[in-house]
Design brief:
The complex is a heterodimer of chains A (277) and B (132). Chain A has one domain (3-273). With 277 residues, chain A is mainly alpha-helical. Chain A has helices spanning 3-24, 29-39, 44-69, 74-97, 100-120, 132-136, 157-174, 179-189, 194-218, 224-245, 250-273, and strands at residues 141-145, 148-152. A two-stranded antiparallel sheet of chain A has the order 1-2. In chain A, helix 3 packs parallel to helix 10, helix 5 (100-120) packs parallel to helix 8 and helix 7 (157-174) runs antiparallel to helix 8. With 132 residues, chain B is an all-alpha fold. Chain B has one domain. Chain B has helices at 3-45, 65-73, 77-105, 109-127. The longest helix of chain B has 43 residues, at 3-45. Chain B is elongated. Classes of the chains: A mainly alpha (277), B mainly alpha (132). Chains A and B meet through helix 1, helix 3, helix 4, helix 9 and helix 10 of A and helix 1, helix 3 and helix 4 of B. Chain B: InterPro entries: DUF1634. Chain B: It comes from Pedobacter cryoconitis. Chain B: Keywords: Membrane, Transmembrane, Transmembrane helix.
């Protein structure tokens, strides 16, 4: 396989990753890692670097549209970014000392758990009464839907913040956006409406990934030959995804979301046990 | 109608538009730079064989800003792509700086503080010598 063939296949894979990432809030990184390691036999460290770049591209590419439409809760994102960026820096430090296959297994188990949680619970309805902290931090907001503007209020801010710190740490450790855990923290703990949590998660992934990407760039994880088809493919995919999201039902989104994270989880556990990382 | 509330709402809307623009242009510029570098890279090395099964790590020119700028001076394709990567990584960070200004204009002290904390964490990560 020449560099040209490698680039073209990776471009296609990155396009699909960007599409799935922006539709589900997972980020583009999760598909990039198995694609690079399993299919191309690329060293996991290059895959992590590429996944981080993909996560930033998906996030920024699709967030630009959602932010303008007023769906993203910027204050909520900003507040939770304290947890995710601090976690991401911790994760990038831990990455030096941790056997990645053990983390991969743990992470896979967590993802399967969250997939089950997502399928079981449905939080379409917005809360009418929020917790005290949600008022202090001005986190309650509203978002546009087909039936007009819907107000929502939040609860369990501390719980959501803690899960976000963990999401940030896994993001820094494995190079993925941890969008699944971010949505879980907002959907299950804080009761953010699904569409708001998906778009706000997307919005946060960029900053979280950037916090650890600055470290990984200096460590040589980000290789230009892999990075450029990944950036272009993921951007094109994210653009298509953000156009599609407005037309797709949330019910379908949830099914795609759960299916995707379960597949990824099994993949990570399998590779963790086989010391492929 | 409360006049203050009205102006505040307009400012929040303005911030959404501004952040949207920052993200859009950052991503567009980085994508463009990456495409230019990428085509140049394929033109130079497209028929070669990819070698990513072993990790080479630091020491390459594209792992530091000075190295990237030096490579740009030599017209090296890899460093052009890496400049696109740096612009991409910088985009969400610039978004935070713009949010900081916007919260400042809204006189939202709590969120100026929150934004400053996030910015400090990222700057610490960038310059804190974490690349042990």
């Amino acid at each position: 396989m020449t560099i040209l063939t490698f680039t073209l296949i990776l471009l296609l894979g990155a396009y699909l990753a960007g599409l799935a990432g922006s539709l589900t809030g997972l980020g583009g990184g999760v598909v990039i890692i198995p694609l690079l390691t399993l299919f191309f036999h690329v060293d996991i460290r290059y895959a992590i670097g590429a996944a981080l770049v993909a996560s930033i591209a998906t996030s920024s590419g699709s967030a630009s549209a959602y932010v303008k439409e007023g769906i993203t809760n910027i204050r909520l994102g900003m507040f939770l970014e304290i947890a995710t960026t601090a976690g991401a820096v911790m994760g990038a430090i831990l990455a030096i000392y941790t056997p990645v296959n053990i983390v991969a297994i743990l992470f896979g188990v967590t993802l399967i758990f969250s997939a089950a949680m997502t399928l079981r619970k449905k939080h379409e309805g917005a809360l009418a009464e929020g917790s005290k902290l949600s008022y202090v931090l001005k986190l309650n907001s509203s978002y546009p839907t087909k039936d007009g503007v819907v107000d929502y209020k939040l609860k369990n801010i501390g719980g959501g913040f803690s899960i976000m710190a963990l999401a940030g740490m896994l993001s820094g450790l494995l190079g993925i956006g941890s969008g699944a855990l971010k949505v879980l923290a907002m959907d299950s703990a804080m009761r953010v409406p699904f569409r708001v949590s998906t778009t706000t998660s997307n919005f946060m992934v960029g900053v979280t990934a950037a916090a650890s990407a600055v470290v990984y760039l200096q460590r040589g994880y980000i290789d230009p030959g892999i990075a450029f088809p990944v950036i272009i493919g993921v951007l094109a995919g994210a653009f298509t995804g953000s156009k599609l999201l407005m037309k797709i039902d949330v019910k379908w989104l949830k099914i795609i979301f759960s299916f995707a994270i379960t597949a990824i989880a099994l993949n990570m556990i399998y590779n963790g046990f086989n010391h492929k990382f | 109608m409360n006049h203050n509330k009205d102006t505040k709402r307009v400012t929040d809307y303005d911030m959404q538009q501004l952040i949207g623009q920052v993200l859009r242009y950052g991503v567009l510029i980085s994508g463009l730079v990456a495409i230019i570098g990428g085509i140049w890279y394929l033109f130079q090395q497209g028929s070669g064989l990819p070698d990513y099964s072993t990790f080479h790590g630091e020491g390459e020119g594209y792992t530091s800003l000075t190295g990237i700028f030096k490579g740009l001076g030599d017209g090296s394709a890899k460093e052009i792509i890496q400049l696109g990567v740096v612009i991409l990584i910088a985009t969400p960070i610039i978004r935070i700086v713009f949010s900081l200004v916007a919260f400042g204009l809204e006189r939202d002290k709590l969120y100026v503080l929150i934004t400053l904390i996030v910015l400090s964490i990222i700057l610490f990560s960038t310059f804190g010598g974490l690349s042990i």
